[in-house]
Design the sequence.
């Protein structure tokens, strides 16, 4: 029975001792995760940024500019880099690095998260004329998820195709905020989301190191790998956020 | 280089911003450039009619000239022997007679084979934020310890 | 199926040469004037000589002006009607000085498709190496051209 007062005393003291740290603990519990879901490294033909430059840039954003960014997804054009392993770089710089694809389809570019061997066998990742609807179906079949990129982009975005009468019944999520958009393009994506009640992600579409993180996606739960990213997207609890709004 | 005006390697830090430098490529500048370049005129760089025939609203600055003026902005800052690599993507047509804002951001610094290297992202933008030209530059700087 | 591009693949590995190009002080000065270049290392022989060069230095992108003098063959690409300059890279390997004489050698580097705001495009990349009178490689230039439907 002598344990009880001791335990109570210890608990009482520890709560008091922890009080000064309450804001930090609260922040850790409540802190959302900010991930840039759209970026290209030199593995894509039109990017000039190495993955090492990206992790160094995350360091600049965090330590010199006071922003919060937990990691980024490399969405290389028309391919998936099965053979690339960035885990050492990620650990060295404490930055989450995930791999995905941005595929060309006849209805615009589509980001695919959770790409695996099965999907790559079923879909020719380099086919620039594939049907986005088939890609969406195949992705879900293989435990991945397909998200149309920059749907408001003039000439190539999903908005143009939907205005022409194309329908995408399996579509629930699009990239709502894209850092590479020209004037008016994100607004078109916004209108699309509102009209169809689509969920929206955010990504910088960085092709240069210093563009990484210009916009990100905010998740309430921790995401540690590609599988959890797909789960978090399917759960539907996320919002696109501009970098300036990650500053606590 | 006791009289050096440009920066030393030790002055540079990740995230440093250079510029923007503002300049205008006038009709006359482009015509002079095309004459030297040997591109037969009139062409879509110098003639309204030929530009429209190419689907452009007005004559544009040639990519080769955009590169030359971005290179100039970098060598003005870093020194005439500093630029080792300039790799540019021409993203949108560059207009004549409008302010062009050239800037660079330091994304990496390293020492390699005895050289002090600075990697930059470089941009040429318009006043309304149009990204006309983007790319990277590799610059070699002297050390102030040498 | 990945888009099968039709073009003359036999061009890979073939070098197309041009030159010599005399890089006179006058050529450098004309280039300087066309872009408003005033750096004394590029404009003033005495400054360049004080820095250890035989004459004024050529600005690093001057060689890009010479590429169009190389007669490049038609790659016989069966795609698109419009063609535009999509990108350019210059790598400086050694100083180019007034009085140098350069040779250019170009080859087809790659051809690949992608889609963008303008629809499907095919990119053709040529690489040109410039060598001076002493056989020293002074610069490499890559030019990328996009063809669109």
Sequence:
């Amino acid at each position: 029975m002598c344990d009880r007062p001791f335990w109570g005393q210890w608990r009482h003291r520890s709560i008091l001792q922890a009080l000064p740290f309450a804001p930090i603990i609260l922040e850790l519990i409540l802190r959302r995760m900010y991930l840039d879901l759209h970026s290209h490294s030199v593995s894509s033909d039109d990017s000039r940024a190495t993955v090492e430059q990206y992790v160094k840039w995350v360091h600049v954003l965090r330590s010199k500019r006071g922003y919060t960014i937990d990691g980024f997804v490399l969405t290389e054009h028309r391919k998936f880099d099965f053979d690339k392993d960035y885990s050492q770089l990620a650990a060295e710089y404490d930055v989450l690095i995930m791999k995905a694809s941005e595929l060309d389809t006849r209805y615009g570019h589509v980001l695919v998260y959770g790409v695996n061997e099965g999907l790559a066998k079923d879909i020719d990742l380099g086919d620039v004329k594939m049907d986005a609807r088939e890609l969406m179906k195949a992705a879900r079949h293989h435990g991945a998820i397909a998200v149309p990129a920059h749907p408001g982009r003039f000439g190539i975005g999903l908005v143009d195709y939907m205005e022409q009468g194309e329908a995408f019944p399996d579509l629930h999520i699009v990239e709502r905020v894209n850092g590479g958009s020209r004037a008016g393009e994100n607004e078109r994506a916004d209108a699309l989301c509102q009209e169809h009640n689509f969920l929206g992600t955010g990504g910088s579409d960085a092709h240069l190191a210093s563009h990484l993180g210009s916009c990100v996606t905010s998740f309430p739960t921790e995401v540690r790998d590609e599988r959890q990213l797909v789960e978090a997207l399917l759960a539907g609890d996320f919002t696109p956020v501009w970098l300036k709004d990650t500053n606590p | 280089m006791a009289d050096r005006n440009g920066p030393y390697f030790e002055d540079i830090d990740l995230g440093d911003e250079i510029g923007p430098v503002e300049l205008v490529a006038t009709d006359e500048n482009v015509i002079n450039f095309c004459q030297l370049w040997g591109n037969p005129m009139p062409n879509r760089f110098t003639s309204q009619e030929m530009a429209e025939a190419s689907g452009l609203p007005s004559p544009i600055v040639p990519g080769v000239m955009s590169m030359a003026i971005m290179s100039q902005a970098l060598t003005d800052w870093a020194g005439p022997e500093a630029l080792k690599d300039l790799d540019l993507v021409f993203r949108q047509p560059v207009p004549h007679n409008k302010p062009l804002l050239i800037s660079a951001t330091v994304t990496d610094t390293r020492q390699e084979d005895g050289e002090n290297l600075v990697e930059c992202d470089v941009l040429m933008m318009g006043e309304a934020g149009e990204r006309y030209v983007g790319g990277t530059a590799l610059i070699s700087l002297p050390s102030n310890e040498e | 199926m990945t888009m099968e591009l039709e073009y003359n693949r036999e061009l890979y590995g073939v070098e197309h040469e041009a030159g010599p190009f005399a890089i006179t002080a006058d050529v450098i000065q004309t280039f300087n004037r066309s872009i408003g270049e005033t750096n004394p290392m590029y404009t003033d022989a005495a400054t360049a000589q004080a820095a250890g060069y035989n004459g004024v230095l050529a600005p690093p992108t001057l060689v890009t002006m010479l590429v169009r003098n190389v007669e490049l063959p038609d790659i016989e690409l069966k795609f698109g009607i419009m063609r535009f300059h999509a990108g350019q890279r210059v790598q400086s390997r050694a100083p180019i000085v007034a009085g140098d004489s350069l040779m250019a050698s170009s080859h087809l580097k790659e051809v690949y498709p992608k889609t963008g705001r303008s629809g499907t495009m095919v990119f053709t990349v040529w690489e040109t190496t410039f060598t001076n009178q002493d056989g020293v490689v002074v610069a490499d230039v890559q030019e990328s051209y996009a063809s669109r439907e």
About this structure: The two ends of chain A are 46 Å apart (CA to CA). Chain A touches chain C through 16 residues (CB under 8 Å).
